Amino acid sequence: MASQPTTNEPTTRRRQLLGRLSLPERTYVTDALRTETVGGILLLTAAVVALIWANVWPHAYESVLDYTIGPSGPLHLNLSLDAWAKDGLLTIFFFVAGIELKREFVAGELRSLSAAILPVIAAVCGVALPAILFAVTNSGSGGHPGGWAIPTATDIAFALGVLAVVGSHLPSALRAFLLTLAVVDDLIAILIIAIFYSSGIKFWALGLAFAGLVLFWFLHRRGVRGWYLFVPLALVVWALMHESGIHATVAGVAMGLMLRCHRVGDEKHSPGERIEHLVRPLSAGLAVPVFALFAAGVTISGPALREVFTQATPLGIIIGLLVGKTVGIFGGTWLTARFTRAELNPQLKWADMFAVSVLAGIGFTVSLLISELAFPGNQALADRAKAAVLVGSLLCALVATVLLKLRNRHYRELCEEEDRDLDGDGIPDVYQQDDPAWQARLTKSAERAADEHPGTGTNELR
């Protein structure tokens, strides 16, 4: 008689995509995104103010942008307010991005290959495909392929601001994916800026900036503290980097990466986490909105809007943001699941990932910066590129809002489940359901409540 196949052979458990975060990671993501959400609302407000200002009082807007301030001398820091916002304030933004990236590598989603593969592949695909679509769109005689990097960025603050304005809930797993994606995206963006948009390198200034970075790292590693020491050193490093011809924001991300982001001994927070907690509100609440105020002011008119959809450069930006980012991020995620035999969190659907991919097409802050860098001698083309960034980001926001609203009721239920804390100990119940002690406490609490409110069953209180 033929032998019967065995059914008790061990099976390999498939890895889950977008699963539940650990409690410490969830707490960090919640705190970080709370600040970014407020910053996103300020960013949206600043963009609207810039558009009104530039179109109602254009001469006043231009005169403010061109107003110069700062010391003259060998470092050439007598800059316009526009340049201070672009090269100075955004350095704070990239400093925070550097800390975020370092933390992700040592304690967050990027610390292991299995956890990092999804956001890294999604981010790389979300950068590559928009660049390819832009290059194809601008391959003709009237195109400007030098702006290929404009539609490659994701603006996490703008995206979260949109979520806050439209009142859309989003489960923590999707929010964490969006944050990690944006962190990797920021790293790619700073590499693109440093490699492709730097010119006229002055090696003496670059060497001194590097020496300053080494001193910054050495003092930090020796445990030296004191803002009165590190802030002046950071300013010197920034000024030297600015003079070297490398974009000054590279100094910010470099210093962020040098901070220690892992805890030692009985530390509650690492130095990087403490500094990020202090600087993030400055970045999200001041630096990025002020940059948007100076960068987003473009003239909006019928002919200008028509050029956005008819000329190769702005059209390539819109296609890159709306189609390239969406298909790149979603396709990279789906291929990762397909070839690693991973399965999506059963509480979510691929439609949710598609909606988040559309939301990630909002490329505001860094896209505006690259628009300035890509066309330094052609302000009219840079303005058309900025207008395309605004239109493309707005289209992504509108489409994402519709898609997310269709699932908002389900998202609200998931968020309520994630936040439920019936025993009031400050720890969400989903992290304690397998703990017998927690189950006993909850049962006693429910029985006591049932005694106090006759007619209410224990199961109802649960």
Q: What share of the residues lie within helices?
A: 55-70%
- How much is the average pLDDT? 84
CATH class of the largest domain: Mainly Alpha
CATH superfamily of the largest domain: Na+/H+ antiporter like domain
- Counted by DSSP, the helix tally is 18
How big is the Rg?
Answer: 25 Å
Please indicate the count of domains.
2
Structural class: mainly alpha
Poorly predicted runs are: 1-12, 457-462
Describe this protein's structure.
The chain is an all-alpha fold and 462 residues long. The protein folds into two domains: 17-198 and 247-416, Na+/H+ antiporter like domain (Na+/H+ antiporter like fold), CATH 1.20.1530; 422-461, no CATH class. It is 69% helix and 2% strand. The protein has 18 helices and four strands. The chain has helices at residues 23-56, 58-66, 81-106, 113-137, 156-166, 172-196, 203-221, 227-244, 249-258, 271-295, 302-310, 312-340, 350-359, 365-374, 379-406, 408-419, 436-452, 458-461; strands at residues 16-17, 68-69, 79-80, 343-344. It has a two-stranded parallel ribbon with strand order 1-4. Strands 2-3 form a two-stranded antiparallel sheet. Helix 7 runs parallel beside helix 9 (249-258) and helix 13 (350-359) runs antiparallel to helix 15. The protein is globular, with a radius of gyration of 25 Å. The chain starts with 15 loop residues before the first strand and ends with a helix. The model is unreliable at 1-12 and 457-462 (pLDDT under 50).
